[in-house]
Amino acid sequence: MDLLPTDEQDEIAGTVRSALGAAFPMAERDRFDRTGPDGTMTAVDDPVVDDATWAGFGELGWFSLGLAEAHGGVGYGLAEEVLLAEELGRQAAPGPFVAQILAARLAAAAHLDDAPALAAGGVRAAWGEPAPAGNGSQPATVGDRTSGEFLVQHPAGASWIVIAAGGSAVLVSAEDVEAMTPLASLDPPTPMHRVRARAVIPGASDTTGASTAWATTLVAAQLGGVAEATCAMSVDYAKERQQFGQPIGSFQAVKHRCADMAGRAEAAITQTRWAALSVDGGLADAGFEVAAARVVATRAAVSNAEVNVQNHGGIGFTWEHPAHRFVTRARLLELTGGSLADHQALLLDAPTPAA
Amino acid sequence: MDLEFTAEEQRFREEARTWLRENLPTDTRPPMGQPMREFDLAWQQTLFAGGWAGINWPTDYGGRGLSDIEQMIWYTEFARADPPFTLNNSCTFVGNNHGGPTIMASGSAEQKAAYLPSILRGEVVWCQGFSEPNAGSDLAGLATKGVVDGDELVVTGQKIWTSYADVADLQELLVRTDPAAPKHKGISWVVCDMNTPGIEVRPIDTMAHHTDFAEVFYDEVRIPLANVVGELNDGWRVAMSTLSFERGTAFMADQIELAATVEALIEEARTRSDARGRFRIDDDEIARRLATARAEVAALRSMTVAGISRTRRSGMPGPEGSLIRAFHGELHQRVYALGMDILGTDALALTPIDGDGNWTGPYLQSFAYTIGGGTTDIQRNIVGERVLGLPRPPR
Questions:
Q1: Residue A354 pLDDT more than 90?
Q2: B-interface mutation test, from A3, A239, A294, most B Cβ less than 10 A away
Q3: Under an 8 A CB cutoff, do B1 and A79 touch?
Q4: Confidence of residue A236 (pLDDT cuts 50, 70, 90)
Q5: ipTM for this model
Q6: SS3 for chain B, per residue?
């Protein structure tokens, strides 16, 4: 039993870290934004990550790390995908990575013609989140007939939409849904479109809960990455920023906030790795561990991202500083693949773990 | 990264489970005094006879020579066996988790032979003499003096917050042996026989109305110099190694028991109704707090295993233990506060601080979890300065 990455796993994470850093330099993030000043929308019809870059990630195996070799994947497990997803969170990277990974898995299991192209990133996927219109409208249904309204993240250029809710994950063709209205997105590099599905028959589906658990773990890992990156950002700033003739990190008010951030990040990262290993090992408590990871990681990411702004003072409130990108990313992830309340309910319903 | 237990670890688990089923006491633990001491030592003797004492202690000192993973498996099996008492709520705690490990790390061959076997065999009770009225968080400011006189130290002063002082045989004691040196450089770590003339123990009643707590007064108490562990005036380093053990794995038992406590609390909420006849778990706020508690105890376990993994690579528990300790202390309090909120008017009835189905006594006792062994503020300082590398405050 060991909860630290092996050298090989560290190498995977290191490769992802530098490739993401090169593709999405933090200083040039405005280039990937689709929400402009005062809620304007820009270039909503262009994919945020261009086709060549996206296919380049596919070539690195990022969309099929945990897919079995027999299905055309790299043949690692969810544990390695979690290390990738942690990096996505640490850099608040643009792009629908979890949608692409899930689409490749669902398509491979259903032997769709598009399966290899989804794993390679040549055919693109978007993420659909059930979004009831309110006013007593019917809740969305996800399954053999998928109906309702959905908020689709990264719709531009996507042929498929992954929807995961209530233990069911489906892959529906983008041609089968009606586009309604584009949204000025809270998270600037994550454009969204409201769409409507009327009894759409999905191209592939998984009602076993395995795909939703997979997606939930990857969302938790990104949240863990957000929690860790914002902690590191605060710590770096607290060492360097001087007030009253001292680095502000020497003051307990700041130091203790940083220590709390470190505790929350550690809880999120270690529990999510545990969850991934439970899924990879087919353990009976995997559902419990995944829900626990999502709950802890959500709270860690949202708290740390918020506290990080405070630790930076005035500069943290500016557009120029990236602190806000982690706040909106944490809020986006909190509502991707269900809400915190949904996962708390799942967790409370899970049987007592065997320990 | 893997969650697999080796074949040996599996076998160890099965042996532990079988043994516990046959040997776990069914009696209630007496809450204080000599009956408590006898109960705790009898259990330690039973553990030793069964081969379950000092699981992660080296075989040279009577232990099993196994890893922290086996130690964790043992705690897990103990909690699962539904014991009538809490593992760490024992007067054998300081010997097993402080005094013993410190002597292993810093003691001479003679000291190891003199002190270690009797701890595991359940022959002695240790207590701690670190804090003083004016040296709490600022432990290095301690003033109890130890004056060298021939081959003895003559100790005069006062210690406080000493659990089990009234029933202890030996004490790990910090004294100032060089008042002229900088405060961290003039302290010695010494083994004090609690039966030496000049020692007076006065009990302290706690907010949980529990009296296993005391202050200890020393009036020219003569302790052989041979009882100094490590070098004279090197006691701060020796003491810090003790505390890193405590912050590392000593509370693993509590952490595992906390998971069982949360499960018991969920059961309470499922079966207990409010004044309107509604089950407590159907209150959305209660349900969400229970779910969060479940998630957090799972994360605490994951953090602990990550800590074990780290210690295995570095050889010594690191400052990351303080991260777990602070998280654990506050989580423990949140769980018992949630218990109070679930109980309704039953929260107004005082229960013992230990044992199944008792919530209000443990709630009062839970305030100790963010104070004892270094307050959570001190743990946050350690995390900030030694894990994150933030600067120390201006002096």
A1: no
A2: A3
A3: yes
A4: very high
A5: 0.96
A6: CECCCCHHHHHHHHHHHHHHHHHCCCCCCCCCHHHHHHHHHHHHHHHHHHCCCCCCCCHHHCCCCCCHHHHHHHHHHHHHCCCCCCCCCCCCHHHHHHHHHHHHHHCCHHHHHHHHHHHHCCCCCEEEECCECCECCCHHHCCCEEEEECCEEEEEEEEEEEECHHHCCEEEEEEECCCCCCHHHCEEEEEEECCCCCEEEEEECCCCCCCCEEEEEEEEEEEEHHHEECCCCEHHHHHHHHHHHHHHHHCHHHHHHHHHHHHHHHHHHHHCECCCCCEHHHCHHHHHHHHHHHHHHHHHHHHHHHHHHHHHHHCCCCCHHHHHHHHHHHHHHHHHHHHHHHHHHHHHCCCCCCCCCCCHHHHHHHHHHHCCCCCHHHHHHHHHHHHCCCCCCCC
